[in-house]
């Protein structure tokens, strides 16, 4: 196990740039590091937080009062044509770029998404008409209850809209993911916004470029020179409802209806560039809550509650947060009655 550190700032390890220090901190570069960290935390009665790319978390200003395990597992194995095993710590967008270079379809619409590969099944990452669950074959995990490494099938992962068997749970540490891509396959272009850019393109690279262009226009591609990218991406999920509450943009979602969270927020009175203390709403995209510099988790929660309450009062629709909250109550729990 690598050297244990104390009082390590966590804010620099997140895309939002918010969060206090870890009481204890160590990097895991092997499965044995993970096992030893879990055992150490258990034997010392310390809570354990597994942190990877830090692109979808909001950490309390007080930090984390236990051991933060920073996953740095690396490695890519091509098991057969279109089938790849990727270690949890590999940067996700590099995997997408590699797949497209090889002519393998299936994840091209997930281009430009920050964070690590191991986080993608946890959140069931999705964008522009694709969900990562469509290509996940198996997920290798370290089971903290049995201290054993095992494999979970796609069905075992219980994938849903931006959720899985892993999200909000602490039983498993994701070690690697096996993806089944489509050699020579056509890109997925079913999302209306993407269709405007590429029509019915057959070139994977063209679709990747278009997705990154769209994401960049919304501040959703990490850029140190652009303060609008200092965020967790989309802070709220698009609500899925049984009946349309009023005339508004909507999309089919099986036998239900998906609403546009961005539209709801804007029409509840929160415009792009809205400011709340040291945080605010991106000037490019209403769904992103940004750290304007010196922002705190408390300010993020305050703004999120304001938005959620306004949408609830005007449309009768509840907005649910996408990020994982560390050391904080959920926005729903803290919403004013």
Structural class: alpha+beta
- Gyration radius from CA atoms, angstroms: 20 Å
**Widest sheet, order of strands:** 6-7-13-11-12
Portion of residues in beta strands equals: 25-35%
Task: Give the averaged pLDDT, no decimals.
Answer: 93
Low-confidence stretches: 332-337
Tell me what you see in this structure.
This protein is an alpha+beta fold and 337 residues long. It folds into three domains: 5-71, Uridine Diphospho-n-acetylenolpyruvylglucosamine Reductase, domain 2, CATH 3.30.43.10; 76-183, Uridine Diphospho-n-acetylenolpyruvylglucosamine Reductase, domain 3 (2-Layer Sandwich), CATH 3.30.465; 227-334, Uridine Diphospho-n-acetylenolpyruvylglucosamine Reductase, domain 1, CATH 3.90.78.10. It has helices at residues 31-43, 92-101, 119-123, 192-198, 204-217, 261-267, 297-315, 331-334; strands at residues 5-9, 21-28, 48-51, 57-59, 64-71, 76-80, 83-87, 104-105, 126-127, 130-131, 136-143, 148-153, 172-180, 182-183, 240-241, 250-253, 256-259, 275-276, 279-281, 289-291, 324-326. The protein has a five-stranded antiparallel sheet. A four-stranded mixed sheet has the order 1-2-5-3, with helices on one face. Strands 15-17-16 form a three-stranded antiparallel sheet. Strand 16 and strand 17 (256-259) form a beta hairpin.
Short description:
This protein has helices spanning 31-43, 92-101, 119-123, 192-198, 204-217, 261-267, 297-315, 331-334, and strands at 5-9, 21-28, 48-51, 57-59, 64-71, 76-80, 83-87, 104-105, 126-127, 130-131, 136-143, 148-153, 172-180, 182-183, 240-241, 250-253, 256-259, 275-276, 279-281, 289-291, 324-326.
